[in-house]
Amino acid sequence: MAILRILTIPDPVLKQISAPVEMISPQVVNLIKDMQETMTSSNFCVGIAAPQIGVLSRIIVVDVSLNPKPHRNNGLLVMINPQITYSSGKLKSREGCLSVPEFTGNVSRKDKITVEYLDISGKKQALNTSGFESIVIQHEIDHLDGIVFLDKVSSLKTDIFKRV
Predict the structure, then answer these.
(1) pLDDT tens-digit readout, 22-76
(2) Which domains occur in the chain, in start order?
(3) d(CA 98, CA 84)
(4) Given 37, 116, 133, 140, which residue is catalytic?
């Protein structure tokens, strides 16, 4: 396993759409392990998407239990080809990102989602979640579509904050 370099804006890879994973090969499994190690090596990081490490594959890793504040969560989630199939409600929260290290921003997202995906063994899964975990999953899926949270803020003047 290895800690991988995180791409930061304005790297053009972060604006590209990722391709679906066709087969969960040993290389994909090793990539996921490297993503987990990279995520856990970064303070307060709760999610990472493959494009952030320069791989344009539809893979995210999320674990909101790594956040110091307690949140209802499902522990470590490895999601291959995730797709949101249901969403409802609204939440506005402050988001940060490894690929945007100097800023945080207020972003509106859905409160409740259902996401379908393949797990690391290739089994189809469906997860219903809400709150912080829902926000993190939506944030990471955005990376798979070439979207960073800065693209979702309402106002660059009032919703972006310098990280201290």
Answers:
(1) 999 999 999 999 999 999 998 889 999 999 999 999 999 999 998 878 788 899 9
(2) 12-162 (3.90.45.10)
(3) 23
(4) 140
| Alpha-helix residue ranges (DSSP H) falling in the chain | 26-41, 131-144
Maximum alpha-carbon separation in the chain = 45
pLDDT at site 63: 95
Residue 121 phi, psi (nearest 5): -90, 0
Known active-site residue 95: no
Token pair, residue 79, equals 């999601």
How far, in Å, CA of 31 to CA of 21, rounded?
12
Local structure of residue 154 (DSSP, 8 states): S
- Could you tell me the sign of the dihedral formed by the alpha carbons of 154, 97, 102, 161, in that order? positive
